[in-house]
Batch of 2 targets.
Target 1
Amino acid sequence: MPATFTPKNVEIERKHTGIGGKPPVDRRPTGGGGDGDNWDNRPSGRRGPRELLSRYRLGVLFALAGDLMFFVALVSAFFVRQSAGHFDARENYVSDWHPIAVPPILWVNTAILLLSSLTMEIARRQLFREIDVMEEWLGLGRPAVKRAAPWMVVTVVLGVLFVIGQWIAWGQLTQQGFHFNSPDPSSHFFYLITGTHGLHLVLGIVALAAALGALFTLKRVELRQIVVDCTAWYWHTMGIFWIFLFVLLAYFQ
Amino acid sequence: MPWAPFNGSLEGARIDRLLLYNLIAFAIVFALAQVWIIVVMLRRKPRGNGLPAALRWAMIAVFGVLYIWTGIAAQRLWANSQFAGPAPEAMQVEVTGAQFQWYFRYPGTDATFGAVRSQLVDAASGNPLGLDPADPASKDDVVSSLLVLPAGREVDLRLRSLDVIHGLFIPGMRLKENAVPGMILHVHFTPQTPGTYSILCSQVCGLGHARMQARLLVVPEKQFTEWLGVREHLRQAGLAGGVSRP
Amino acid sequence: MRKLFTTDHRSLGVLYLLLSLAAVATGTLLSLLMRVHRIWPDTPLPLLGLMKPEDYLALVTMHGTLMVFFVLTVAPQNGFASLVLPGQIGARHMAFPRLNAISFWLMALAFTILISAFALPSGAPLSGWASYPPLSAIASAGPGQGTGMDLWLLSIGIFCVAAWLGAVNLLATILGERGAGMTWSRLPLTVWAWLTTSILTLLVFSVLLAAAVLLFSDRHFGSSFFVPLNDVVNGHVVGRGDGSPLLWLHLFWFFGHPEVYIAILPGMGLATSLFANFTRRRVAGYKVMAAMLVAIGGLGLLVWGHHMFVSGMNPYAGTAFALTTMAIAVPSTVEVIGWLSTLWGGGLRLTTPMLFALGFLSFFIAGGLTGPILAQPALDTYLHNTFFVVAHFHLIMAMAGVFSVFAGIYYWFPLMTGRMMNDLLGKLHFWISLIAAYGTFLPMHISGLAGEPRHYERLAGPVVSFSEILPNERGITWSAILLGAAQLLFLWNLFASAKRGERATENPWQATTLEWAPEIPRRRIERGPYEYENGGTESMFRPQWESASKQE
């Protein structure tokens, strides 16, 4: 019976990912004096220490591309809805769209989110400094973790501040009479867009916290790199999404 | 045409002809392709290396021409019916879909549809469309559940819906357009042959969807004027309330 | 239990297929109830009693939703891809095995939620699988539009996320996990198809999710995205702002049309592979075939408006969508001609999978040819939402899609169980299904040309009787019953063969693609996917796992 009939075999093989052998730094074999082979020519699972990282990056990239479409759909609905209207009793074309001025606190929130992206990027880079990675890989200590953790804590705090800031913005709008149930379409969009984006950020904060915990619990250097790297790309993308959404809400009402 | 209900409109004849050509062309292609499959199943001995590439591309080119023809021919009909509006002297009738009934409104002698207000909609008291009595233009509007049209005169239908999306479908006129709430859509056609035609709902609209039907009566011009006159008289006398049943 | 919560891609593939088997069984049962009710509307059914109009519409809605989402998306894309995709590209596993399991369990959850709508006292939703608002936005618009519709939305939302995770996984696998030497031009065409459908899934299911969120907000938070001002339902003004039902149509069909290609493209790839295998020939124009699969997917994103010719969309947009739709006929024709020419003089080996692939081709042509007719807006004004359309998409999507799934199951069954399915029963299943499927769906064209609309729970209404097509409709119902009954043969064959079937030999179909390799190759792939010796005998083929220098 061919081996393909027994899935168990496949499972066992997975455990040998083939990345234990080389330190997870961004140096590729050049062929100078070595075996001269290109890692991409090897079977998957044996393509060097960065293989797992690039796999996860690819997954995050596609997931975010799908997510982008979600927001694109919301934004296109925004523009369609904005141009909608009806004929009133005197046959005038009127629209029920009343632009709402975004609460000024959103500017502060945007600055906070940008800042958090910056701190996250600093944290991410700590994990890829070659000299620290080598030290961690050799088991001489955890300099990268020690350096990255504070920046990640700062990012989490800033992220929480952003979400709280959005919450305050909602409260301010409600006080002005634009609550979610008010019949005004622009306020629906405001709440829906900030709400779905906020949900993404809450998920991001959970992921950040989990990554922070994982920094101290994961044994392998490359896995620590992966969690921080993927969370960072997610976080950056949410920051970019927010800038677009914020510009939309602030200037395209 | 044996396969479809009798066509009574000017535009329908051209649609029928195009549809027939299409059906014939594609039925022939269908038969040839199926024969091809049967033949290759029966010929068990392998021969050759499949069709030469040149022949393949030639076949693709033939289909390309076929698609271009169908595309252009259909677009001409579409442009005639949709890009160009109705003639200025076309008769105006408003069609309103409501769960699960079609209502037809004639503007009356002033040729103007009166205002409607959704707050006034009340089918039980005889005002299913919510005609506003304060608007003088609505005084002479005739609302009917039967669509009566004069033969040979272009009609401009003004489609509305009160509640959900309905589909106005008159098979005998080869006409279909959705009635979308919040929108006023126009379709125009010319009924030619007097007779009775059915009006169906083609967009699922709720549990009474299959029963949402009405009749279209195409009558000679003179008979139509008489019918409308009677309705108008009843309306003015306030006897029939808002709606009059056939 | 361990088998159930597995992350192994093959076992998950089988689980996906079992999920869609449950869905297709339910969906078929619902459709048979519909058919029986249509010709005997006043006869009480056993156990169910007299069917009310809302019951019929609920059947239509649930039938469509089950079949489109849980059968035609789950089986060809998630099921088969999980089963064989890693094998075909020389990978050991999916890029994210756990994500694959999560995706499966979310789909199973979505299925359970959808089915549970039947248990509600108010019944299942009735607004059709496209769920046009305001009917779907307002709970009072009909029975089942309350909690039933909420369950539908919840189920679809979860399914969107699940399909999306599945697509991420497939894309990461195809792009990142290919074995050494597995270049783009050495990929089997099924992989090209899955690549295309995964991209489509990522793009369009996100849009459906956004639309579902908007609709949910309309239903529960008093927003007005899809409900216009002055909307009056049951005598109550429910409209709050200038929402537009057309917005939903655009968002939904932007998803809905590519969804059709998600259902059919894997079948097209599989059929190409089977035609090559069972004629022992190389695929005629491999590169063109792969390019056309991608082209169909790409153009598929631009044709959604042909569902909306009579919906009140701008007529100029109608013209544009008609032209893009005509354009998509071209790559489809190239594919069909490629298949026909591969088959020509091929000395077909008529195994059960091959028969089903030929059935797929036959239905693909039958349903595909009515596509250009319906793509002409002027003709669509008569045919839209009649049974002509029902016939069209059941032939091209449902029958072609399901026959390709059958072909895949008969073909890959040895990979799932190590046994072969019974050939005689398989062939019997094929011939009865083929004849019964044509008997069911070809006459629907006639009903459609007679002007009979979809979603009608009975032929005879207050004005029209459609009595002239009653014999036609009776024939359809009896054919449908035969079609349903033939599937019992398949079920029997499936479970009996899994238990006691003949043991499969190594590479039982003498195939060249990598999923049949005796073990996962550790060396560079050096061969194309379809290296059959043209016109050669059965032994003359070069599997992808053999080295290029080895000569037969």
Target 2
Amino acid sequence: MKKLHRKALAAFMSLILLFSVSSCDIFDLDVNTDPNNPSEAAVDLLLANVLSNMSSSLAGGFNGSSTGFMAQTDNSDNFNFSNASWNGTWNFLYSGPLKDLNELVAAAEAQGNNPRYLGIGQVLKAYYFSTMVDFFGDVPYTEAFQGDADSPIKEPAYDDDAAIYADCLSLLDQAIANFAITSTVAVRGDLIYNGNMTRWRKLAKTMKLRLLLQTRNVSDVAGQIQALVTENDLITSAADDFQYEFPTAVTPDFRHPWYQAAYAGGEAGFNYFGHQFMYEMLLNGDPRFPFYFHRQTTTVLNPDDPTDKQTIPCSQRTDCTYGYFVLNPNITNALFGSDPDGLSSSEEAYLAGIFGRDRADPSGIPNDNPIRTIPGSYPAGGVFDATAGSGGGNRGSSVGYFPMLTSWMTKFYLLEASITLGTDISKVAASESALLNSALTDQMNKVWDFGSRGQTVAADESTWGTAYSWPVTFKTRAALRAEVLAAYPTGGSQTARLGYVLKQAWFANFGNGIEQYNAFRRTGLPADIQTPLQLPRQFALRFPYAQDELNLNSKTPVIIYDNPSAAVFWDTLKFQF
Amino acid sequence: MKRILLLCFMLVSVFVSEVWAQDRVVSGTITSTDDGSSLPGVNVVLKGTTVGTITDIDGNYKISVPAAGGTLVFSFIGLTTQESEIGARSVIDVAMASDVKQLTEVVVTAVGIEREKKALGYSVANLSSDQVSQRAEPDPLRAMQGKMPGVNITGGNGAPGSSTKINIRGISSMTGNSQPLFIVDGIPFDNSVNGNDDPGSNTVTSNRAFDIDPNNIESISILKGAAASALYGSRATNGVVVITTKASKKNTKKGMEISYNGSVNWQEISGIPDYQDVYTQGSNQVYNGGFIGNWGAPMPDYVDQINQQYGTNYTKTYSLYPDGAPYPDGTASNPISNRYPGLFPDLMQDYTMPDGSVRSVSAPYKIEPHDIIGEFFQTGRVVENGVTLSSGSEKASINTGFSRMNQEGIVPNQTIDRTTLFFGGNGQLDNGLFVSGTVNYVNTNQVSPQSGASAFSDYYGGQATNSIFARLFYLPRNFDLNGLPFEHPVDGSNIFYRALDNPRWIAKNNLYESNVNRVYGNITAGYDVTEWFNVTLKGGVNTYHDFRRDLIRPGGIAVPNGGVTTDDISNTEQDYNLIMTFSKDINEDLSFRALVGMNANERKYSRRTIGGANVITASLLKTNATSTQIVLRDFDRLRRLIGVYSDLSLSYKDFLFLNVVGRNDWSSTLPQGANNYFYPGASLSFVLSDAVTMPSFINFAKLRVAQTKVGRDADPYQVRTVYALGLPIASPRYSGVFNTATLGNTLGNATLKPEFTDEFEVGAEARVLNNIIGLDVTYFSRSSTDQIASAAVSRSTGFTQEIVNIGELTNKGWEIGLDVTPVKLSNSFTWNSYFAFTKIKSEIVDAGPSGEIFIGGAGSTFGTIHRNGAPYGQIFGTSNARDDEGNILIDKNTGLPFPTQTSGIIGDPNPDFTLGWTNTFSFKGVTLKALIDWKQGGDFYSFTAASLMLRGQLANSVDREGLRVVPGVYGSNQTYAATLDENGNKIRNTTPITAFDSHFSNGWGAYGQDEVNVYDGTVIRLRELSLGYSLPKSILDGTPFGRASISLTGRNLWFRAPNVLEGLNLDPEQLTATADSNQQGFEYGATPTTRRYGFNVSLSF
């Protein structure tokens, strides 16, 4: 009996122990709902994310390399890519903003009565995917983003680039129709137009113009373009510009990529600017120069000093056209009418700060971060070049922006349409040269507007001679424009006129290399850009596909990106050096 | 374990033995050769008779023997039997040596079951306290390196506390955790790294097994295969490390014992590259005081010699004054003054210009080589002290103690310390209940300067990063890092010769800190309901909090405004087991034991990270003293598991043992309704030598075979695809804050299944020639199927990865333990050799739908990949394009190769085999032990080699006058084929390049294709060397000490890696990332490994 009692006691104690140390919760296995992340997200949250991430990517890698292709910086200026080069960007875009955009469109469609978000999603989809085609040719489109579908597609097919373009145009038509529907849904999360549907509608139409013009070599688009111009509901004033303005906060750092490179660290870490670009602007007395560029140094390096010699641009080559401005007699004579020895000290100090590279100079990188010319106040939000000074240290306003489709771009499209397709532009401007004047006015005003934010800039450039101690005399905006218009080859050939216009676009589209790169592949103009000093590869007709995509998606085509066979469908020129 | 047996045996023997009166009496004392202590309970038998006795508690015996002749046989389990002719002696003292092989070892197996080793149908490795303690190694995992076949342990790097990876029988998971389950005192012990930093930002993070002091370990059992570990359930797939600490030691003697261990060790860098001191910093043979690379002009001392030899015309001028006059021969302008003119008056000079004006310019700076590395690194130190106290009575005993370890690394300000307090006890209560419990408290503090690997700052030509290693190993030879100033004399900001953070400034100011408080303990209550039925309930908690801080002082380059990041991690695990044991002898030949258990486990984890930017004042590095704070992470995780298990053992005549196990788990991390899974196993042990009569030279022979399956659940929250909130954006144009969200990038899997590992193992053990040779051979073949993996998907699906049950991964291997005692002399000199050999071959049989999983690494297309048909974790990167005959294709214009179109596998990081060879020489209390470790094969990509080459640092790059030609044929980067001449023949490359281009350039040299920097990681090292001496009892008599020993120890004293770049002197044994990463095959350039030497003292009272 006693033994039994003891057994019962032990069993009882065991149970007590078991349940007192472990409450019954420990047997509840239904605890696998993620407490850290939401299971759904509203469309406005997705929209803000799409706009922020996509704009940063366009202004970052895409803009960086295409600016390099067009000799404005040395970024990718030797066209030497591998399948790794765009792997990160591709991966980010498809699994990030492009997917979220797809979610947004799907959600707006599913909600049924949400035409505004749907229209915005369709416009953005048209812009982003036409841009993807411009850079990558065939890309996954109709089968993309189906990883979580009921019947998931793990290896999406690559759609024909021309077909994607056609669908983008149809999306724009749908968007225009959607914007016409009355809706009470207020659009939030719209970092571009803050829900102004009129502007979205104008963007949709201007985007249509952009895509049609892009395909003018392969399709008969004259009629459609004429219809758009006649309707005259395009982005033709700065208020309607499709542009992204970067946040200025240091943390989290979503500032303009150029600003981050040149001003965010302790010292500037920007690429080199192209010498030809800087030289020609100086030669023209272009008043945009001190907005575009900021000089860091006034000290002339001594070519006899071993350290200095290594640092001087092109010191190890003989084939540079521009080299070290301050010691290049051709340049000093053209700008100041004297040999390097004869420069005044202020001329010397000024030119010492013009420190970039000739096109595709393959020399090693010396310790010249504190010397290189860095971006000024436009468009990155750096420092207006009143005096030379170091980058880094978060100087400047950091009010950077990325122009995606602006009134001056519209006008350059219309000029190209007028010159090549004979489009009647009378609804917009009286003549080609008047339209060019209007484009330049819009662009220069934008430069002054953005470039003066957060810092003191003498607004009237006719006072610059006294306000600033530059040895260079910059023309006024009006004087420069007058000079440009006076030289417009009104009666010249198509190529002469288009070349002239696109050279002006080259200066004006500074900050958006994508426009320039597209125009160049479409027209081969401007034709007078310096030949690269070294060419490990041919001119990039597009980007190579991503390594991961080649590994993981057997449908990825195998291409050689600088081979004419790889050109994008609208590129009939297939430029080769 | 030996002691327990010894005691039990003694107690039993006391009652059964009796002494018969004989003609005369012989007496004596039996001592141990190990430490001179007396041995109680030893059998003393007159040979050929039943006359015998045993020694008493002090090791003394008395025995009556015949008047003449006779031989005494002294024997005891675990000791080598000795015979001694009596002759005319009346006193016979004997020193007995231990004989591990002879012992009927009892080992701790799953869920604490103790079983006779010979009954096991699978392989279990054991280490005793003395094999891991006092080894000059504060990391318990590294203390086990090279000592067990089938167990591969790799230290992260030389930073104190840096993580260590342990893999048992290969790696069984492609993307998930590959670390074994740690069980300490019966309760799971979390060994996470909790890393979120990539190797580019932090390389010193610890794995939490570091919280175990090797000196507090009583014993370790490693349950290698599935058969051994299955009862532990879901986490046992990678094997189990069962550690018993001294807190839960069962007492050996009555009374009290106090023991003390102390050691001091010093450590220094294990290898410094063979630097060249012939050329200065610069490029193209011209000095440049702003460069990092060493491709400049010759140093002053070599100018004449090189001019003479090559007909060059170098001068000893390195800089010019403002008027163009040269600085004095052999000097240049001071690199610090150049960047900060006038800041350091001592480094300036007044210079008179030709026009008579005086200018303050940089003072001359002598161009000469410096021992940058040797002076930057310091001699580190490890100090350990520990006291243990044990006491017991008939019914209860306690163990308590404390220990403290304090380690200073070779890098200034790099330290770790660990303090442990423990208390454990057990007792038999009057009501029959057996109760035991332990509690341990550990405090671990780690400090290190920011230690991101140089690969991510130097090699990629990237921006300055905030790490002492960013460029430390690659600084200009003529830059006097340790002599020139490194901080601003007024505001303390960073001073360096170019826009980078000075390593000395980082080491002083920018620290990573981790402060861990950990408590773990358990309570066990057991009761024998009947003689054959026992119920035991065991429960425990293991909890820690890790408070991490990253402090960045303002005034640097990488983070100019400074920052403070706080990262607070807490982890709590509860684990309970209810175990019922039935044991019954069915008849004389057959006995049976059954165990049925139930296990409940909960793991709760939380982590909050707050980033503070812009430090307000450099004198206060706290989050609330920053101007912006962002909550970067607020993460919680909870998982539960319930298991029911059973273990049935049947033994026949004590030579045939059958063991059947089975477990069923219910996991919270699998889809509800489909979250339970069962896995069984069986093993058989057949002791041949007990079953049949063997030839006399065979002392022991056993065969074993096992086939077992282990299931495993997933990590939590992988069932659904979720959204993620992003950081809010403030638009400069429109008011208000724009919140953002994104659809997550990982595809959840609502039909997730458990993964299974099936393992077959077969083995044989034998001891022959009077136990001189012992062999233990195991072959295993394991296959992991339905792996729960996070597999990359084509990003055009919209996602980066998906949670999948995929394919199959196999590991097949041989483990051989060979124990040889070539010499054993009667004067007690013994030489024992132990070989632990491991050869494992892994194969990715099926890596899912795409046939591969890229798991990351140095870049988005350069890293570790699993690919069908290839072994585990290959190095994936670019190679030079080659023609059909394997010639490298050369671009005619540049004279350099170009890459193939796509990347591929360029190396296999898995070793061909590993061999640990322990030699032990003992003689009269003196023991010399040497562990030599050989790892054959295992490729790795060395970023350090790449950086040193491209920076012109190595002695092998001294020959640099004149041009050279890359061997290859001309080819086209459009067709990827050789260019042919008019006769259709290939054209040999004759385009010359400079030495600089050859080493530096993007194409052929270090900046060339990835394959260029892959090396074979074969390494042989002297991992441990120790010389110990146990003071004999005769000396200790009259002192308060019962035992005393001193030893000299050395660790990693020598290594040789024959196939690595000559002169690199780099230890290939480094982890690619922290231990929780499955990436392998990359050496990124962080804290180098160290060699360590010192002495230890061990005393007991």
